Amino acid sequence: DSLGINILIEMNGYTQHARPELVAHSSAPLRISFLGFAHSLMSPFVDFMVTDSTATPTDLWRSPERAMLFPFTFYLTNHASSFHASHLSSPSSLPHVTKTQVGLREGSFVFASFNQPFKITPELFDVWMRILVLVPDSQLWLLKLNEGEEAEEHLRLRARSLGVEDWRLFFTGSAALEDHIGYKSAADLMLDGVVFNGHSTVADTLWAGVPVLTIAGTRMAARTCTSLLQGVHYGQGTMNHLTVARDLSDYQRIAVRLGLCPSCMSRLRRKLVHSRLSSPLFDTERWVGDWERGLKMAWEIR
């Protein structure tokens, strides 16, 4: 185009502070939507959307853009390189933060939602409360970020109405960047949002060695976690299916089963920790190679 741009990468979509009009008015010969908006832009001004066959199966594809499909997961991480020189550089040296250090009850089974509170729907929260009731002495760890201060009061009121004691809901703020992954290791199982999944939150939690439970929804935003699980558990048999539920009923069943089976959780967590550094999700070099091949193919067929 007039600015000398051959490939324009759009990374904001329709999120806050986005500038989609720049893409619409660009004359770049190739325009690609990538990462920042987990859905099609439904725009004739975008040529390709970066995704994978798990995040957007072909039978769910209803978009004007063409799909640039990654072979494993479309999601980019840099955990292995970022923590290369630190104590997080290998599975065996992952710091173990105790529940007591965080403020949780030692010996309790800790479910966690590290997503922002706006991802919690009333129906999902009620399922979480039923899980707590069915798993004695378990706790739910929640973050109070942004609107979370006000959300805490409302969530506690709802929990009480469902017979869940106050101590079983544990709220914390955000941790320092260098500490937050270590803190996450105190949880036993992350419960993902089902309308809008966690993205970087899920990647951080998996890197901390904590399994994540999700539902494979019908939209990319509700299937991103499934994509990440495919990326970290790929080649590990059916492990990823153990924590990908069909619906909320199945989600509750899996959470309760894992909460009541310490040996199941131990095997799942051990397998996750040992698969991290060899998995596509945390192999940045492999992802970059797939990205370069994808760009070349998109340029050739544009």
Report the count of strand segments. 10
In the sheet with the most strands, the strands line up as 7-6-5-8-9-10
Span between N and C termini?
A: 15 Å
Number of helices: 12
Unreliable sequence segments: 85-89
Q: Looking at the structure, what is the overall shape?
A: globular
Helix-residue proportion: 25-40%
Assembly classification:
single chain
Largest sheet: 6 strands, parallel
H/E topology pattern = EHEEEHHEHEHEHEHEHHEHHH
Average pLDDT across residues? 88
Task: Label this structure with key terms.
alpha/beta; 10 strands; globular
Question: Can you put this structure into words, describing what you see?
Answer:
The chain has 302 residues and is α/β, with parallel strands linked by helices. Helices cover 37% and strands 13% of the residues. The protein is built from twelve helices and ten strands. It has helices at 20-25, 79-82, 99-102, 122-134, 148-161, 180-184, 200-207, 224-233, 239-242, 248-259, 262-275, 284-301, and strands at residues 7-10, 30-33, 48-52, 66-70, 110-113, 139-143, 169-172, 189-191, 212-215, 244-245. The strands form two sheets. Strands 7-6-5-8-9-10 form a six-stranded parallel sheet, with helices on both faces. Strands 1-2-3-4 form a four-stranded parallel sheet, covered by helices on one side. Helix 1 (20-25) links the parallel strand 1 (7-10) and strand 2 (30-33). Helix 4 runs parallel beside helix 10 (248-259). The radius of gyration is 20 Å and the shape is globular. It starts with 6 loop residues before the first strand and ends with a helix. The relative contact order is 0.14. The model is unreliable at 85-89 (pLDDT under 50).
